[in-house]
Amino acid sequence: MAKEIERKYLVKLDTWVPQDGGVHFKQGYLNSQKERVVRVRIEGTKAKLTIKGVTTGVTRSEFEYAVPVEDAAILLDNLCEQPLIDKHRHKEVHGGKTWEIDVFHGDNEGLVVAEVELASEDEKIELPAFIGAEVSSDPRYFNSNLLKNPFKSWGKA
């Protein structure tokens, strides 16, 4: 079974400068229940269908499959819960790890988070200078929850 072990952090916007233009992501959810999440995503010129299980600690089951972009576009427009997640993803390598920095748009404008995948939950990592508070265990920051409770509705975070 595939596992995703990931930590998520807020980004200090006064210290982070994007190193590239990022890749545009448009994603939606066929199912966003806590027990199972089924996501459709177009990332640049590729598309994926992803199924994720319940998060325990910072680990959850994850299965990901390539799908035709045309099919993903139809799913996003016609079958996914609305609104969709719109963001740009930037990647930076630090301390031997690839950090994915997501800059959200639309109803989640102003939210910028960094994620790093780990080999184990207790793996020690070197944090880049732009990393702020860890939000791995805060469900508000799950993309699937940003549909129902977008960042703009939180007030000051």
TrEMBL record:
Location of the active site: Y29 (proton acceptor)
Domain of life: Bacteria
Pfam families: CYTH (PF01928)
Gene3D superfamilies linked: Hypothetical Protein Pfu-838710-001 (2.40.320.10)
Domain CYTH: 2-148
PANTHER family cross-referenced by the UniProt entry: SLR0698 PROTEIN
Name assigned to this protein: CYTH domain-containing protein
Organism: Mesoterricola sediminis
